[in-house]
Write a structure and sequence with these properties.
The chain is of the alpha/beta class. It has ten helices and nine strands. The strands form two sheets. It has a seven-stranded parallel β-sheet with strand order 1-2-3-4-5-6-8, with helices on both faces. It is globular. The structure holds iron/sulfur cluster.
């Protein structure tokens, strides 16, 4: 096995194909509404990450049904994970979040995934998620945008939080047995190979359950787009991105489930997306190169639990 892929994990856990259905809520983000910032992260476009989302004015149930009608025949899935995807879904009162999550607990929904920022996670919200899990017998997953463990890069992208908030949220999630997924951009312009390795090591040490990798895409009408047009940021080559993904996989724990090796965004909204190459082709290139090198996830994950004293044991 080259890496612990999400599709194989879902099949193992649920015994069949499971598809994630995106849901939008009428929420924003504290980095956009003035609470911790007004302009958002420099790479974030007007509609956040919700390119495939239905309008937030539709009820949760209506969005699930509409997406199922569209997706079920195409992907032949009978079980679903309701994915509260866009903006910061815990950036609202906990009782309101609880109501939305409960609405998603329909008979063929086996899991609820909630995307948010680490500074929008507290014990109260984790208690809500744990409650939903226990009452409705669904799995709950907390998806947190971290992007990089390099806190200097986080400042440059105007993230509004640093690594500390992620560590805090992750440790709290463990207390409530809420499984987490960290979103990472492996090629932020200021990050180097050492940051790629440190991303893998910190996520492994914190026992994050899942990870989702993205290559940076340049969304039109963003601060990043301006920097890009002025030549103030340069992006690594596709080959370098592939090397970074392989290095990352080699260093992460073999237990971590890898949701994605690269993200996707519609080209119409971006100045640059995935080197104008299909995401699946890049995934294929990564897998082929790993097979050729006979490498695999976790091959270099030897740094936890007192590496230097192992010889005495
Ligand atoms: S935290 Fe997410 S939604 Fe908020 S500005 Fe950054 S990328 Fe956009």
């Amino acid at each position: 096995m080259l890496y612990h892929s999400y599709s194989s994990y879902l099949r193992q856990r649920y015994g069949e194909k499971v598809y994630k259905l995106p849901i939008s809520l009428p929420v924003t983000c504290p980095n956009r509404d003035g609470s911790c910032g007004t302009n958002g992260c420099v790479f974030c476009g007007e509609i956040g990450a919700g390119y495939e989302n239905l309008p937030a004015s539709m009820t949760v149930g209506m969005q699930i049904e509409a997406n199922k009608t569209h997706i079920a025949p195409k992907y032949k899935a009978n079980k679903y994970i309701a994915y509260f995807q866009n903006f910061s879904n815990t950036y609202q009162p906990p009782n309101v979040l609880q109501e939305y999550l409960a609405q998603a607990c329909l008979p063929d929904v086996v899991g609820i995934a909630v995307a948010t920022r680490p500074d929008c996670v507290s014990d109260e919200y984790l208690a809500v998620m744990a409650n939903i899990r226990d009452i409705y017998k669904v799995d709950v997953f907390l998806e947190m945008g971290l992007q990089t463990v390099n806190y200097r890069s986080l400042t440059k992208v105007n993230r509004g939080h640093t690594l500390a908030e992620f560590i805090d949220a992750q440790l709290r999630a463990k207390k409530y047995s809420v499984e987490t997924c960290a979103h990472i951009i492996l090629n932020l312009p200021w990050d180097e190979d050492i940051d790629v390795v440190e991303n893998a090591k910190i996520l492994s040490a914190l026992e994050v359950e899942q990870v989702k990798l993205h290559a940076l895409y340049i969304v039109k009408n963003t601060v990043m787009a301006e920097w890009y047009k002025r030549g103030e940021v340069t992006l690594v080559s596709k080959e370098e991105y592939i090397e970074r993904v392989i290095t990352f996989l080699e260093y992460i724990s073999p237990n971590i489930v890898v949701q994605r090796l690269i993200g996707r965004a519609p080209e119409a909204n971006t100045l640059f997306t995935n080197w104008q190459t299909g995401w699946w082709k890049i995934r294929e290139e990564i897998e082929q190169l790993m097979a050729k090198r006979e490498t695999f996830q976790g091959r270099r994950c030897d740094y936890l639990n007192g590496k230097e004293v192992r010889k005495f044991l």
